[in-house]
Amino acid sequence: MSASPSPGLVLPDLLQGNWTAVLICTYSADLTFLETRLLSQLAQIPLRIVLADQKQLRRSFDEAARTGQRRRHANKAYVAAPVRHPRSAHAKLIVLLGPTSGLLVVGSGNLGYEGYAAPGELWSVYAYSDDRPNHVNEFAAARAYIDDLETRGLLDPPVGELVQSAWDQATWLPRVPEGRTAVLSNISLPIHDRLREVVTDPVDEVVAHAPFHDVECAALRALIDEFAPETVRLLVTSATSASPGAIARVLADAKRATVEKVQVKSEPAAYIHAKWVHLIHGERETLLTGSANLSGSALLCSADKGNLEMGVLATGTRGAFDHLYRHLEITAVEHIDALDISYRGEIDVESEPSEHAIVLWSRLDRTCLTLVFDREVHSDTEVGLTDHAGRVLLVREVAYRGECLRVELAQESVDRVSEGGKVQVALNGRSDRVSVTWPYQMAHLLGRLDREAQRDYLQRLGDLPEQDAELAELLEELEQTLIIDRASAWRIAKPESPLPQSHVGEDSRFIELHELDWERVRRDPRYRAYLAQGRSAGQPPTEIQVILAAITGRLGEIGMSTPGRDDNDDEVSLAREGDAASSDPEAAEEAEQKQVDELARRRLSIGTRTRMAFDRFVRRYAAALDDLAFVEQLGPIPAAKNAAVFNHLLTQLLQKDFASSDVTAEAQLRTWRFLWGDGHRQGMAAHLDEATAEVVRQILSDVGVRTTTLRGVVASLSKVEEKAIASSRSDIVRHLLVDSEFGLTADQLVDSAGGTSEADMMLNALIEAASPASDAEILDIVLAPYDIDRSSAGWKGEEVVRQGKGIQQRDVFELYARVADLTPRLAQEMLAKVAVAVLFSGRDPTYARIGFLGNERAVAFWDEDVRSGVVWDGVEVHHFESISPPWPDWFRRSGQLKDDLAIRAVEAA
Amino acid sequence: MWGARAFAPKSGQDHLGLGSVSSDRILPVLSPGINVLTIHPRYWSFYAWVLDDFWGASLPRTRGAFRDFYRPREALFSMACHVCDAPEHATLRANIVGSRLIGPKSQDPEFDPQFDYIKEPLGGYGLYYRTTMEQMGVLVVARPDNGFPIDAPTPAGRALAAAFRDAVHGTQVSRMLSMGETTKRTPREALVEFARSACLCQLRVSGEHDLPLLTDLFLHSGVTEYEPRSRRETMRMLLDLSSCCPSRPIAEDEFRQLVYYRELDGSMYMPMADLGDVARRWRVYQGREYFAYVFNRLLRWVSRRGLAATDGGLTALAKSAFRGLVAEALDKSVDEGDKGLALPAVSASTPAANVLTHLRGRHGVEYDANSVWPRHHDMDEHAFYLACSSDEDDGVTLIALLAMILLLGERFGVPQRAHGFADEQILLAEGGSLRIGMSRFMSNLNQRMLAQPSLAELANWLIEDFVIVQHERVAVAKLPDDTYRVRRVGDALRFFAQEVPATFSDSRFNALSTTVHELGWVDSFRQSERQLTRDGRALLRSGDLPAGAMAKAISVISRHGSVSP
Fold this sequence. Notes:
The structure holds two protein chains of two kinds. By secondary structure, chain A is α+β, with helices and mostly antiparallel strands. Chain A has an eight-stranded mixed β-sheet with strand order 7-13-12-11-8-9-10-14. A six-stranded mixed β-sheet of chain A has the order 3-2-1-4-5-6. Chain A has a six-stranded mixed β-sheet with strand order 22-23-24-25-26-27. Chain A is elongated. The two termini of chain A are 74 Å apart. Mean pLDDT of chain A is 88; it is low at 1-6, 563-569 and 595-605. In chain B, helix 12 runs parallel beside helix 15 (381-388) and helix 14 (352-363) crosses helix 16. Chain B has helices at residues 19-30, 42-56, 63-83, 99-102, 123-135, 155-168, 172-178, 188-198, 211-220, 226-242, 252-261, 276-309, 319-332, 352-363, 381-388, 395-413, 425-429, 438-450, 455-478, 509-518, 534-542, 549-561, and strands at residues 8-9, 110-111, 139-140, 152-153, 186-187, 263-264, 267-268, 317-318, 481-482, 486-489, 492-495. Chain B is globular, with a radius of gyration of 27 Å. In chain B, strand 10 (486-489) and strand 11 form a beta hairpin. At the A-B interface, helix 1, helix 2, helix 4, strand 6 and helix 20 of A face helix 1, helix 5, helix 19 and helix 22 of B.
């Protein structure tokens, strides 16, 4: 039965996941709600079809056209199609389909805020999976209903085609149910008759509610006549559309009847749009829910004569449906007339036919726009077409075939129509003979099914998506695309064999390389994708090319548009509020705080599972970088491209907090060591023959790996303070500053940072990353060359006299142990090292002093401001006027870069 | 199972999304780099100083370290601005960051720099100034795409910092801060001493320090060539306009009327010849404000009348019943007070064209884009706006709003007068179909008027197609925050009991007028008998002041400020 007895189903939360198709049947369709709110969470579902009542949908499209809503995605990224039933197409259901699973929701709510997000609707939810197939018949009933719409010609032909494509994605789904199902429709039999089939024993009580009754309450009367219950309880609200007189007349014929007013307990103002008929009979109870109101055309007619309706018929023991009423506040109504309700007319009236031909639907195939009218269009009819912005579409040729017009458009016009939005059709230049249509763009709609060609998420690697589901999708696509370790190679070489059970942790070195058929790996398209250079005519780019283009922001160069930019951009941007508030700082502060909170909420929405999955992926890659045998087998070009991809991915993960910072930072360090070396060992290019090394260098240059590395250092610096990582980072950054292979220049800094001023700050960050981080390291600058133990030295605050400045408080470096053979020259040499330590410890660099407490309190100092120094060796004073601090090479290089940037800054100014 | 409420109600603001057109599209064009809350130019110097000092200190480059460094400094600065006793302080407007909590302490003998003076971690810098400072090229804001851990000053920012440092050099507070001392309570006297050189009010007398740099910056800096020119023109227009009605202070309300009508209390504002374009742009801006006000006030009317008719939203109201409510309000308008307006007696069925004819009769037919628009205090946009500002949601309010939109149509929407605003077509089109662009709307209005609608039909058209539909679009876009005030449910309307304010967007007048005053070009606009200073007169007359102060300072900084191992 229903997935859960919980009284609160948050429907929008249900509408997401890794499905291949979603079909929504609804009476009215709030396409703004769909596009702005739901489409983003349904983004990964290729085929999204909404089937709505034709009059309601027409009203929605007409309003969009009138009020300037473009509906750019309608019939391009999703289908919004009419069910051309003469009366109301009133059924409400949602089917989510996957290759081995499905989710079915049947109920009373229409597509929109009120129907999907407010507490006045009733829903039944069914899940299917190959493991738990028990509700397959309910799914089949839903499919049979939709198929029947197509069979009856109620769907536009292109929509029928797309619906079939949806079913094709779910081969587990039978065309028709076998046996009785809880889900039913009135396609062949009125719902009332279906109810009668189920309930055959005498009925004690009927409880019924619907927001709409027919004018004479004929449906209510039919229930009473058919089931002759001992008691009738009619539930109404203040918004019920019904004639009090008709209710009174019908209930008068019941054995015993009450009228009761219902409200949602938690929200008395909520509109109760749910409809149900609850029969209590013998030891059982039967509950009909779904779309059918208490009207003749809904309950008493089959589809031939009435509406299209869908419901759920559930049975249970006594009390099985008590939960239904726990949601409601129920009060008895003494006199029906006391309720201020009235019959507000039939909602299902047929509209008057238009006096002129109107476009029913259209489709765009390459340059041909097919327009299908509601009547024949004569060949002497002049057809004027404009796009969503009112610009004329250039027509090359028109072919008239009865109700159908085939219009050949100029390519430029095709491009405009392809961007989405309405096409306005005017006949004979008459402004009063205009209709609007959103063409079905079949190639685009069906193309979304070709997930292989989509590479939707790989394109997002440039700027990682913020949504958890999208991140998870991206990770999955990366895992399927990249060969990063022995486990990846195993999946290619032995696709039929699962990974050995002993595979634990992230290091896959337990897989013997000789177990893998490397020839097979190299023949595989995934491996060949690494080696592709350029593109053959007509061939799509390889996945690796897509990834690298996404990283460098050059998707356009391989014929792909930057993803995620135009999706709902327009309407979503309406959420941005203007400065309606005054210039009150506290109000602004509060507004800012809200934004911060929102950002935090979005960050929190990145699920632990996704974070852990990224951690595992990153660890696998980092472990494989030390697996030299694997790297050798993989080859330098795939290895270089992997490093380029991970270098970017790791920085993004770190910047956006999408993975553990220590895991990510550690993997960064290994990647940089692999690419560039670290002072102890050389980078990858050094191990290659010159020709291969050149190819690798070109790859790294093309993908901007140096820029990513520099940005990665800055990101790591701001996110990770862990000592071991900071220490390793220092080693690598010092190396990068002087390494000829990395070749850091002022130009590179400017490019990487995005400007001269920014370059200076980036360089400051590099200097900070390279600088000794711990007290011990700083002490070692002075002590290590002389093998003096750190416990023999320290800093001490003292008052010192400075020339022209008087007495100042300064930190003095003190050596407690005796220095053997201390000479004025040695004291001066050690003082020079102290000057380095002073600078790196953040002390005032204009003054350095060392005290030799073990050498008769000998002392040496240097005052940079007056460029004068003194050594007192305990006996006499020695003056000197220069000093040569042993600045590390990386620091000297950073100074040169600073100077280069300063010159640029002056030039720029 | 029952469906549950998926989204929680929130108050929100700008429920038709129209405010964003002024604040995000039009005003940034008119006054780039100065926004509603960046009132005091000297904050540029102060924040640059703090940032530069942070980068000069040996501290971790983390946001946390910067916050700890920043907050006591801004708290001290705020307190100093509260205790300042300099004569220039008399004209300092509000908007000292942290005033709400620090103001009450201004008489205390000591001040704790660690005082929690504001909730936002980076105070006024994070809330207001950093974005515009970046726009002016003073700093780089840390972002994932530039890889910076925290914001940092550019050479221009460092030059500004150095000038400010120079200005406050020798004060006890600056010495204390240079030594990183931010924990000891600071005597009031020390803060008074600091304020005499650091306070926001002291900028206009700091010609030896940061004033020349800020003058250069405000007149010549920007991401594009257009930005400084536009900012300069707007600031000059303010100087030009300051001489209008010299006997009375000019506040925002007067500013709006002056830029729109160019007349206030019988005093005319005739822009200098080379300021005609910018004056016309500001006229369009204020036209857009009146335009947006009509729809916002209609939403307020709809919401409040709807709530009143549905027991505060407990029930739904049929659309037809709501139309009846509109018609009834219009019909009853003849029995209501006229709110000081000279509107004709009308009913729901009165042709809207009658009201238009009435307006034309009073206003004439010529609305030249460059001339003064004569005031009619009983029947112009501002009069309608004032009349609708009360909480009465009656028929006269409705008629005043209809009259206002018709009058705006006459000024900006009639094709034969469009050429007068030919250069402002982009501003008039702002909003497009997403946020009710004026051009698009005026075209629709002209079409609609051809069908000779009654007042009720015109009102219903505005309410249904431009208020309810627009509000629903905005509210959906704001989900998961549920900010609905009214929603269509089938053939009915549901109303939700929350406030719907109808106000103008902030015109940035406070920020602009304070900026030109504190840059030393004119007396405060709050003063009567305002005078331009010598620099102010030179700027107004010649169109600009000499550039180069910043470049010179950067050059000095670059030579002496670089790290030389």
